[in-house]
Write a structure and sequence with these properties.
InterPro entries: TPR-like_helical_dom_sf (IPR011990). The structure is a single chain. By secondary structure, this protein is an all-alpha fold. Helices cover about 80% and strands about 0% of the residues. The two termini are about 25 Å apart.
């Protein structure tokens, strides 16, 4: 729950930032000089890029949460079998062992979104965020292709 609150607070701050930057871009364009108009247009592009990124990230998080809820209802969420260091961090060797199991499961069932979801969690536990995101995107695509999206 804390992560959701943090996400929404940061998203709200970004929206305020987009509005402020956009208003500055409009002011630059309104000045109407040869320098301020192109600069104002360039400044206006930034909030649109930021808004697209925020929308895309929010959509991804919502879809991943939807899959987690569905998998939880089926009783298929991965069990936390990871060893932790005294500070609470996931032990790398333990994460590698679990990752190997999840990878084998996914290789045996490459069209099952559930396997890809669990593989994404294993990638995340192994601190490989880019691959975790790609695996989750694949799980979402498989879920949608199965007609559940």
């Amino acid at each position: 729950m804390r992560a959701k609150i943090t996400y929404f607070v940061l998203a709200a701050v970004l929206v305020v930032y987009f509005v402020l930057v956009g208003s500055r871009g409009v002011l630059l364009i309104q000045q109407g000089t040869a320098v301020t108009v192109p600069f104002g247009i360039a400044v206006l592009v930034l909030p649109f890029i930021g808004a697209w990124f925020l929308w895309h990230t929010t959509r991804f998080a919502r879809r991943a949460s939807q899959l987690a809820r569905e998998l939880e209802a089926e009783g298929g969420l991965p069990v936390d079998e990871l060893e932790r260091t005294p500070s609470g961090r996931i032990d790398r060797a333990s994460a590698d062992v679990v990752f190997a199991k999840r990878r084998a499961e996914t290789e045996a069932n490459p069209e099952d979104w559930r396997s890809w979801f669990r593989l994404a969690v294993a990638y995340h536990d192994a601190r490989d965020t880019p691959r975790a995101r790609k695996a989750m995107q694949h799980a979402i695509a498989l879920h949608d292709a199965a007609g559940r999206g």
